[in-house]
């Protein structure tokens, strides 16, 4: 534990407020006790606990940790995760957890968040990422110090092993809880822990130090490339958007590093779900540079090409519906209503002669292959081609409505184009329909 103490004393100032992420497991309780008993620093310790609400024991563990904090005059902050909707529990739970930690750090004006990742965790993480493929940043595993915008995340237990942590807890008679899921072989990490780590430790009891050296060296290489990107590539990656024509002029290594940087930012450093395959598939998509091309990514995100730009955004599911319109209809932020008169000529007004169509009208979602006979022309055009020509972005495409008569003829793409069924003000019509989009977009 000597190296752990040296790290803390070299990186923490006297009387500093520090936040400790603590689950009441053995690792975080060892770290917390080390900080509590480091009398030289006289730290103001804030304990941040997240109840993941997946085990019955969670409530008891939270109460026991609270008692420990009261006994040792520590500030205790906690939260309970009520529900996670995302299919990737680990990724979503991590987001919630670190959002909470961030909030606690800011509340107490702390500059350091301690987490209890140890040397065995580092070995497991590196091996798992090597096994499935990752990025340069991913291969270096867990860092001793991660710089955030307003504070640092520090992991001093990377200098020690699980065995040393358990010996420390026993020697100091510190209570803690065991999470039984850590022994479930359905988890990849647990299989590495059970089957691979014992062999490595038999060969070299201090193998975790070698992995830490490996991690530090990879970080040096990664930092060098990152500095190059900062100096040379600001014009390529701006505001989390890649400018494609400039991107394509760069060397393949730089292209990959730019994509890794973008992915890391979008996944907030959670590299367990990102690997080389994602990077290469995105790169191939960008090389093809086909407008409105999409690639599905983990965690409900998509990569999207729009007009010489590539960006990663949350996927917008397209709701399917087909509503009958009579006098008024509201769908989410859209309204359709029949009005008496209007002098507009925009794509937000439709004038129809009821004798030329089959009532009632329908408002529905777009279907692949939709075509419309455009106003003032004598040919049909695919709706998808119209959206491309008019540079309609992904969000509007996913929320697009189609206005038809009862036979299915497309009369109108509200806010975009009208068919030749639309009448001018000097022509014969008996129905006027107004489209209102209650959003930032103007009805022009």
Structure description:
- The protein is of the alpha+beta class and 444 residues long.
- It folds into three domains: 2-213, HUPs (Rossmann fold); 236-314, Uridine Diphospho-n-acetylenolpyruvylglucosamine Reductase, domain 3; 322-437, Phenylalanyl-trna Synthetase, Chain B, domain 3 (Phenylalanyl-tRNA Synthetase, Chain B, domain 3), CATH 3.50.40.10.
- Helices cover 38% and strands 21% of the residues.
- It contains 15 helices and 22 strands.
- The chain has helices at residues 2-11, 26-36, 58-71, 89-107, 119-132, 136-139, 162-171, 188-195, 197-203, 207-232, 244-247, 252-266, 276-288, 383-389, 394-398, and strands at 17-21, 44-51, 75-80, 112-114, 145-147, 152-154, 237-238, 241-243, 294-297, 301-305, 309-314, 322-325, 328-331, 334-339, 349-352, 361-365, 371-373, 380-382, 401-404, 410-413, 417-418, 431-437.
- The chain has a six-stranded mixed β-sheet with strand order 3-2-1-4-6-5, sandwiched between helices. Strands 7-8-11-10-9 form a five-stranded antiparallel β-sheet. A five-stranded antiparallel β-sheet has the order 12-16-19-20-21, with no helix packed on it.
- The mean pLDDT is 91.
């Amino acid at each position: 534990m000597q190296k752990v103490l040296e790290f803390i004393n070299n990186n923490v100032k006297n009387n500093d407020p520090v936040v400790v992420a603590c689950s009441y497991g053995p690792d975080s309780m060892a770290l917390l006790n080390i900080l509590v008993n480091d009398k030289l620093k006289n730290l103001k310790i804030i304990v941040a606990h997240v109840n993941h609400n997946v085990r019955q024991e969670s409530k008891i563990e939270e109460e026991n940790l609270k008692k420990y904090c009261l006994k040792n005059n520590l500030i205790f902050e906690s939260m309970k995760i009520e529900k996670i909707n995302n299919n990737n529990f680990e990724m979503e739970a991590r987001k919630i957890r670190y959002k909470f930690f961030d909030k606690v750090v800011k509340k107490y004006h702390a500059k350091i968040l301690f987490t209890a990742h140890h040397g065995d965790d580092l070995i497991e993480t590196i091996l798992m990422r090597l096994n499935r493929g990752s990025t340069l940043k991913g291969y270096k595993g867990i860092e001793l110090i991660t710089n955030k915008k307003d504070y640092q995340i520090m992991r001093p237990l990377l200098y020690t092993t699980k065995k040393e942590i358990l010996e420390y807890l026993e020697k100091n008679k510190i209570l803690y809880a065991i999470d039984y899921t850590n022994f479930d072989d359905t988890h990849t990490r647990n299989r590495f822990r059970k089957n691979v780590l014992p062999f490595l430790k038999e060969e070299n009891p201090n193998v975790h130090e070698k992995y830490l050296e490996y991690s530090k060296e990879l970080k040096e290489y990664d930092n060098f490339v990152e500095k190059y990107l900062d100096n040379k590539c600001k014009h390529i990656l701006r505001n989390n958007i890649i400018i494609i024509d400039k991107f394509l002029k760069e060397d393949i290594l730089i292209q990959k590093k730019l994509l890794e940087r973008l992915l890391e930012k979008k996944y907030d450093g959670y590299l367990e779900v990102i690997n080389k395959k994602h990077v290469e598939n995105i790169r191939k998509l960008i090389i093809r540079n086909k407008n409105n091309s999409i690639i599905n990514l983990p965690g409900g995100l998509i990569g999207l090409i729009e007009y010489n730009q590539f960006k990663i955004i949350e996927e917008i599911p397209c709701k399917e519906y087909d509503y009958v319109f009579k006098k008024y209809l509201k769908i989410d932020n859209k309204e359709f209503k029949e009005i008496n008169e209007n002098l507009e000529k925009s794509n937000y007004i439709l004038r129809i002669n009821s004798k030329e169509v089959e009532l009632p009208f329908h408002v529905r979602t777009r279907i692949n292959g939709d075509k419309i006979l455009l106003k003032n022309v004598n040919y049909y055009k695919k709706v998808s081609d119209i959206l491309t020509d008019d540079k309609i972005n992904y969000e509007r495409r996913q929320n697009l409505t189609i206005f038809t008569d009862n036979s299915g003829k497309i009369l109108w793409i509200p806010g975009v184009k009208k068919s030749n069924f639309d009448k001018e003000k000097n022509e014969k019509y008996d129905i006027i329909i107004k489209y209102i989009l209650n959003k930032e977009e103007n009805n022009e």
